[in-house]
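Researcher: Please translate sequence to structure tokens.
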Amino acid sequence: MPNNAIAAAVGVAPSTCHGRIRALQDSGVIRGFHADVDPAATGRGLQAMIAIRLHAHARSNLATFKDYLARLPGVESIFFVTGDRDFLIHVALSDSEALRDLVAHNISVHPEVAGTNTSVIFEYVSVRRPAG
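Model: Translation complete:
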């Protein structure tokens, strides 16, 4: 949304709005801006969540493993979580063969991985809530 539209919506001058947004960015409240791209429109119509459990001895290398995951094809988001799994990764890929290859040839075979569990996403709804 353009700065002028935000300013009009909240009833302040555009310069005031710009300054407030800049302050929110500088303080880390606003971490960035992005385009919401539909993976299916880019040929990646199959989405899944992959739960990954690491071997106990591998937990000392979490940052390295997270960096490895971030470089894998199709990875959209990485979540470090509690419970019986260590990571959840959201992936978007072309088809089930690409998903199988990612899990079988890149994740499950990694020496730090004790196990995986993959759930295909039938529908994804992004919930955007107004501030306040």
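Researcher: Any highlights?
Model: The chain has two domains: 1-33, 39-121.
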